[in-house]
Amino acid sequence: MRADAPSPLRSGLMTDVGRQRRVNQDAALALDLPRGGLYAVADGMGGHAAGELAANLALDSLSQHYLEGRGAPPERLAGAVQAANLAVLRHAVGEYAGMGTTLLALLVDRGAALIAHVGDSRAYLLRGGELHRLTEDHSWVAEQVRLGHLSEEEARHHQWRSVVSNALGGEERVRLELFGLPLHAGDRLLLCSDGLSGVVTESALLELLLPAQSPERVARTLIDAANDGGGPDNITAVVVDIQRGDRLPRYALPERQEGGPLYVDALLSAQRGSSPLTYLLLILVYFTLLGVLLVPEQRPLIALLGALLLGGVAYAQRRARVRPSRRPALSATSLRARAHPRPEPRETETAG
């Protein structure tokens, strides 16, 4: 008798209103899929009830459009984020005018993770006892940190720390970051709103994520830690454990684009490919059709030659897109920052 193989994934999520808010405007998603799962965190904004509506609209639309979408998972995920953006934008009228939400989505597909990121919710990866921050905040204070005008500790207490520079519902086309990375057995991923990352330091997060406890219990522990730190905002944590390794998907994992978020149409164009092979494919289609129209007596031969050439170019393009997914697991483009112990805030320091 052979023991059943462990499930490849296990997840746990929790969201909490915190200690100083009356309404929870965060929302979380955990959706099982045949080859993995779709997980997300949304942190709504826009006044009483509006932020709560925006966050839930975003997650409902994200899951629905991803499940109904067609094409490669990176394109489906980006398209689902754009659909979520439009859902929020179209409901932002009347008493809900000006509402919006962050959105951080994690798609686990076989042995890979795809991350779509809008706003200042964060994704972390715990691997081999080290914590890696996978996302950069789309916020004013994060930009000042990148420019060297603020330290991480100053940003944590700055009066504008909650001002995001990118969110769903702001304009017709969403700006997002989309990238992928290979996963290993034993990896633990965390998605969280700034109600957690803005209160609990990364060194403390590392200590809380390290114990071999269930994702559900870890999520509870993280929420408790944020509340123990004052709970100034709504708090959400989604913890995903990779219990069994799997092979990489056949499509190329999207690379992180330098320069921050891109408009969705530009990002999708990059994913679909604008390589010389793509232009060659279009040229062959054009001249095949032109030959069929101008030389009707040779139509079967021209069509056959055109089909053979098109098939060869399409095969070469597919091979070119699959090959990059076999890059090393820990590349500079996939893991942005490690959590190093930092001094805890001094009691004399206060939020601005």
UniProtKB/TrEMBL annotation:
<protein>
    <submittedName>
        <fullName>Protein phosphatase 2C domain-containing protein</fullName>
    </submittedName>
</protein>
<feature type="compositionally biased region" description="Basic and acidic residues">
    <location>
        <begin position="341"/>
        <end position="352"/>
    </location>
</feature>
<feature type="transmembrane region" description="Helical">
    <location>
        <begin position="277"/>
        <end position="295"/>
    </location>
</feature>
<feature type="domain" description="PPM-type phosphatase">
    <location>
        <begin position="10"/>
        <end position="242"/>
    </location>
</feature>
<dbReference type="Pfam" id="PF13672">
    <property type="entry name" value="PP2C_2"/>
</dbReference>
<dbReference type="InterPro" id="IPR015655">
    <property type="entry name" value="PP2C"/>
</dbReference>
<keyword id="KW-0812">Transmembrane</keyword>
<dbReference type="InterPro" id="IPR036457">
    <property type="entry name" value="PPM-type-like_dom_sf"/>
</dbReference>
<feature type="region of interest" description="Disordered">
    <location>
        <begin position="325"/>
        <end position="352"/>
    </location>
</feature>
<keyword id="KW-1133">Transmembrane helix</keyword>
<keyword id="KW-0472">Membrane</keyword>
<dbReference type="InterPro" id="IPR001932">
    <property type="entry name" value="PPM-type_phosphatase-like_dom"/>
</dbReference>
<feature type="transmembrane region" description="Helical">
    <location>
        <begin position="301"/>
        <end position="317"/>
    </location>
</feature>
